[in-house]
Amino acid sequence: xxxxxxxxxxxxxxxxxxxxxxxxxxxxxxxxxxxxxxxxxxxxxxxxxxxxxxxxxxxxxxxxxxxxxxxxxxxxxxxxxxxxxxxxxxxxxxxxxxxxxxxxxxxxxxxxxxxxxxxxxxxxxxxxxxxxxxxxxxxxxxxxxxxxxxxxxxxxxxxxxxxxxxxxxxxxxxxxxxxxxxxxxxxxxxxxxxxxxxxxxxxxxxxxxxxxxxxxxxxxxxxxxxxxxxxxxxxxxxxxxxxxxxxxxxxxxxxxxxxxxxxxxxxxxxxxxxxxxxxxxxxxxxxxxxxxxxxxxxxxxxxxxxxxxxxxxxxxxxxx
Length: 320
Prior knowledge:
This protein is an alpha/beta fold. The chain has two domains: 4-180, Rossmann fold (3-Layer(aba) Sandwich), CATH 3.40.50.720; 192-318, no CATH class. It is built from 16 helices and eight strands. It has helices at 24-35, 51-56, 64-70, 83-90, 106-109, 130-138, 157-168, 182-195, 200-214, 219-228, 230-248, 251-264, 267-281, 284-294, 298-308, 311-318, and strands spanning 16-20, 39-43, 60-62, 73-76, 99-102, 120-126, 145-151, 177-179. Strands 3-2-1-4-5-6-7-8 form an eight-stranded mixed β-sheet, sandwiched between helices. The radius of gyration is 22 Å and the shape is globular.
């Protein structure tokens, strides 16, 4: 772990950074860099709805090719499935010996992008959403980030990646900046998204809600018990760890947890998790994501419609 005192800002000072994309992560990184004294350009397609937002923040907005051509460091922060086409478009404009940056290793790790051999290829991956990255920075704090290098053409890629992380404010976080690799960041992040926090946890909440409702429990009460208390759990785990969380709840809750947890998350669940991890280590997920994007996201659209029409969502709205 590296904190502010360990990170040298010199490698990024006096250099221009192009942020390609101005979504949640793009906005936060562009503003944090600017407020750290770094010259920033934002690359957006002509007519982008985000152009006005970026200009309103006082940022210079150019096309992706123009921004890339002016920059020493070009960071691709559009959705992963769009990055190969964006790289193909801007590659001829990239300066010799420039750095290409990412916040997620998927496209490089699975070979969807093959960067030019003269480029440094770095990754700084904040471990949270852009809105929180920006808020923590403005509060004088920081968000933990992973740093990695996939290609060190100049011999300075690591120094640059760490300086970039410092400019984002990540050195201020308790755990600071953690050295990683494109492979480890990609595989662990995809596994978390699919098998743990964003995949399994919502499915578990829905299953618990449906079990109570099917047994005759009022849907509002089922929502409060199975979904609403998740924030309490998350806050306790964040503040005290899992062991400390158990100490903070009642004996009744803790005893129930010791009986129920191992029965629901048993060896079979771990076996399926291991199988999923094995699948994610291949490039099948990356190919499927590209195919989903190419057909205008039919699976994602169907799942969003299903979630919006669910009884759980109706119970949530009734409590607002």
